[in-house]
Amino acid sequence: MKNFSTAAVLLAFVAGMGVLPGAYAQTTASGRCAFLPNAPDQHAVVRGDTLWGISAHFLKNAWCWPQVWGMNKEQIRNPHWIYPGQIVYFDRAAGRLRLGTPTGSGPSGTIKLSPHVRVEGLGLEAISAIPAEQIAPFLSQPLIIEEDGLLNAPHIVAVQEGHINLGRDDLAFVRGDLKGGTSFQAFQTGKPLKDPVTGKVIAYEAIYVGSLKLERAGKTANEADTFRVGEAKEELGVGDRLVVLPLTQILNYVPHPPDHDVNARIVSVYGGVATAGQNQIVTVNQGADDNLEVGNVLELYRFGKTIPDPLDQKKAVKLPDEHYGTLFIFRIFKHISYGLIMQVRDTVQVGDIARSPE
User: Fold this and answer.
1) What is the pLDDT of residues 235-275, one digit of tens each?
2) 93 and 31 assigned to the same domain
3) Which domain, by its residues, includes 321?
4) How many helices (H) does the chain have, and how many strands (E)?
5) CA atoms of 167 and 131, how far apart (whole Å)
6) Which of 140, 135, 134, 200 is nearest to 335 (CA)?
7) How far apart are CA 97 and CA 104, in angstroms?
8) pLDDT tens across 306-332, in order?
9) 237 shares a domain with 328
10) How many independent structural domains does the chain possess?
11) Rounded distance, CA 357 to CA 342, Å?
12) Are the beta carbons of 355 and 298 closer than 8 angstroms?
């Protein structure tokens, strides 16, 4: 194993990561953030890597990334990103991962790290926290509508003459308050999403049917606005509601446990199926109003069964809840959130537990 120059490591630490001691700076070599016994000395970052994937090379739990980097809360929300060509080093003595760019070896096998510019935000080449292709559609489309969010939205009142359903470049006539927007997505109200605990409807799953762009605003209060269809994914027509096209979100978050105890439940599996596996999308019954935030990692559990004591049939015994996977929260609404299933040993089912890591 190669040795690290103290000065070089400090230089890379300050110039490369800009990390200050904080709430996430304490790391132990054992417990939930333990390093793998066969962890490599280094990993060369390549295109297609993710923070989660790199962390999995070194750590028992990949979501422990912020702890072993010594990142504080603010840096988790606005991290300094990693790029292809850089090297992640395992500083075994400190129990930390370090970032640097190799410039050759010094005497006695010492690795020299060159300083590099601190980068704010996500550059075009920076690696993301998790596989971006899995969640991209869920960042650009609302998909979840809360509190009758579509009820007062602008809607299509008529279509181009001779058409029943609209296609690309067709005209649609819209009534409603556009609130200054010019680019919209069209939705239909889908099935209600019910809280598995209370049975209460907490949101609706909206069905994306297409996109439209304003071509001509109505000249009087009762004249319809004219839109041209950019995309027609499903049957797009009269009655469909319009929502302003959201700004593209930057994936500038890293995995970290919640600041507080979370005990949520799986509400639904995207696509209307009963079970889900790795890299599929689910919703949980907590969101921003419950202090859940983007980047939170939750552990998945299945309720332990209650069985009769074999030696005393009159007494019931509850078996422990079974931990079987990990969920990454990547988009939040008021009372519901989207999560990407990262690792599972079993299928995810509606009603399963999603709670803070122990």
Assistant:
1) 899 999 998 876 655 555 678 889 889 999 999 998 777 88
2) yes
3) 263-355
4) 5, 21
5) 32
6) 200
7) 19
8) 999 898 888 999 999 999 999 999 989
9) no
10) 3
11) 14
12) yes
